[in-house]
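User: Batch of two.

Assistant: Item 1 of 2:
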Amino acid sequence: MGKLMFRYLDKGVGAKFGAPIGMALVDKKAIAAAEVSEEAALDRIAAAIGGPVAINVFDLDAVTTTSDGVIVEGAIVTMSAADGGKIHKEFGILHMEEIEVDEALLAEEPHLKPLARMYPGRKLFRGPDPAKKLIPVHNVCMTGKAINNNSATEVMNAVTMEEMLFPILGQVQVMNEGDVVFAITGGVMSVGIGMTVAEKFGRVFPTRQFAAGETAHDCGDYAQTLKANIPCVVAPKDVLAKHILDVLEEGLIPGKHLGCAPAVLCVAHAFGSEIAIENISDRAWLELESVGLSKQHFLKASLRLNREEILARADEIIPGLIKPQRVKSTEYFRKIEIEA
């Protein structure tokens, strides 16, 4: 056995009240290098932190998707929640399910068709298999005060009732030692996280419940308030735009293949990409209009900016976030090394 390295964000760091519990991110290669099992590594991290902490294990060679269907390199393969130096053996750990990418899957989930060209031969992970978890409905782990929810993209403190969103792109930025943004979510993000695509073993939904162009929130004006006043750690908007452009250039269409989240729609419109406007439901338009994005806005002539222009103007093109602060992740997510 050797040394085990992980990246750690202290409780209370970030926007508003900051992270409600500690956040530990670990690469599966670091676990392998330490010559311990994944379970033993998680136990060591839990013991080293002592207090409430969410622990996410990454396979940076695998791929996943955002909730609106954008392909991302780097995937969470195991999530955990610990407190008091321990992990609840029944409810404190959950493994994401590897999803076989075959013709049947691609027929049901066309947003995955670029995978073979973008990341040939990579493993795909999103959420767990519902048949292999004890807690119904939510893809969540719980131990003591620590709650790690939505396949490790949202954390909560069960005592203070505080929560923080930590979307997958933000976590990948940390694993790759890139910049992240500390911010308060705001109404645009609150609306956007409900614009999902239908996926098997999804990060939030285990079955294909909400197709591209629909809203999972389905609550009109109220959607902009659901997650509008909590801290988040997200990827910078130019990084988000880069990932959206990658799949737009592969021929994917927002509202048909991709979810109709504000970021996706705004990047597509600025780029001059097709948007399946008539496939976006009236209920989804109600939510988009509540944050100032009407159907008429996207029917206007596009600026047809090129890729470099969109990346340079991403903060202007993509709406959302309150009091954003772009920081170097390495200055806030400390590298910690412990005995394995």
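Item 2 of 2:
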Amino acid sequence: MTETINIADGWVEKVNAKDIEGMLELSDHNIELMGPRGSAVGHDTLKQWAEESGIRLTTVTRYAKGDKVVFEQEGTWEDQNGQVTVFTFMEIKNGKVVRISRFDTLDDAFGDSGLKDEDKV
């Protein structure tokens, strides 16, 4: 589980640093992306999102079990004032993020991930 958390933390660090290549190295080539604007698959879409989103994520709370993590995060965007609390679910396999989903509520993230309050680390 520690490796899973470290990979997820590293992925967030790469996004915050705008290290696109580093983020892609930690992401499966067929990564599944799900968020408020729909779903997509693959490095090309992930790269476009990372280049255009202008997001910065600060992790507040971590939940983890097996190959899954849910992070409660404060998200800020370069072109907007203020911040938003988001819940990011990542699934890690073979050292790579294979799935990432963004949710507006912890309950929704738990529902998709199968994690629960007891998995807080």
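Residues 2-16 form the longest helix (15 residues).
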